[in-house]
Design goal:
With 279 residues, the chain is an alpha+beta fold. It has 9 helices and 14 strands.
């Protein structure tokens, strides 16, 4: 079995390789052609499929083929629970944003999830291009404190915001009805915010760690938040569900048909006030 450091290195390289594949493929004529995903009775962009193939290939080498599940290659809960561990990913979180040319609003996320002996995420990684178009990948393992960028310990720049008034808050929502619901929950407090942004889940979490956003919240599927939220929590961010409970990462990744509430905040004080609004 790989050590924690070795597994983080594997995820780091896999995510970097996937970011490169997306970067090289985004200009292809058929990149955003829709293809059918029979297992989901839905469709995806071809670039989503390319990204997932690239990411999952990293876990099918070295004589060990791991069970991989992704947004474009779903497996049933029973199939996943039958494994000792599985790899869960969203190899291109935010492809709709990418299609619109919003380069900093998509990410690659992946997690190695144990069913036994400890049912939880063991290692996770999230990667995206920063404002200077430089690929950045953060990894974390439950056995080691903090997050890492390659072999370097990552020092987050979490803000010191402790209250909603004046805070820079992001949500992840793609439907007007969902945004309307969030506005109703905030009520009059919405006008006290310093900034309110709509950003794809994983990129928004990364912006909490870089200090550009004070908190992010949403209600979404496990692929969309669990790996990034795990990395953020290991890095020192306050991570909870809307009712203030710790996130159940494995449960969220076992059943992607269920929406889960989540938030990532720079400080516990801000997170608790945000939870009081959203609950």
């Amino acid at each position: 079995m790989q050590t924690a450091t070795e597994e983080m290195a594997l995820l780091y390289k896999a995510v970097r390789r996937t970011l490169s594949r997306i970067d090289q493929s985004v200009g292809a004529a058929d990149a955003f052609q829709e293809v059918a995903i029979p297992e989901k009775s839905a469709s995806a962009y071809r670039i989503d499929v390319w990204a997932e193939e690239t990411l999952h290939s990293a876990f099918q080498t070295r004589g060990k083929k791991r069970v991989c599940v992704g947004e474009e290659s779903p497996l049933s809960r029973a199939e996943l629970e039958a494994c000792d561990e599985f790899v869960a990913s969203d190899a291109l979180d935010g492809s709709t944003w990418l299609k619109m040319g919003l380069w900093g609003n998509w990410a690659v996320v992946v997690a190695v999830v144990e069913n036994k002996p400890i049912p939880s995420i063991r290692t996770a990684a999230v990667g995206m291009f920063d404002a200077m178009s430089v690929p950045r990948v953060l990894c974390a393992n439950r056995e080691i404190d903090g997050a890492f960028e390659g072999a370097v310990h990552y020092m987050p720049r979490l803000s010191s915001a402790t209250e909603i008034a004046g805070a820079r808050i992001a949500c992840s929502a793609n439907k007007p009805s969902r945004i309307r619901l969030y506005l109703e929950k905030f009520g009059a407090q919405f006008d006290t915010l310093g900034l309110f942004l709509n950003i794809s889940g994983a990129p928004a979490v990364m912006r909490v760690l870089t200090g550009h956003v004070d908190a992010v919240f949403s209600q979404s599927r496990g692929y969309d938040f669990a790996p990034a939220a795990f990395v953020a929590e290991q890095a020192g961010a306050y991570v909870r569900s809307w009712d203030g409970k710790p996130l159940q990462y494995r449960e969220a990744l076992l059943d992607p048909s269920v929406l889960h509430t989540w938030m990532v905040a720079a400080t516990p004080e801000l997170g608790r006030e945000l939870a009081s609004i959203l609950a």
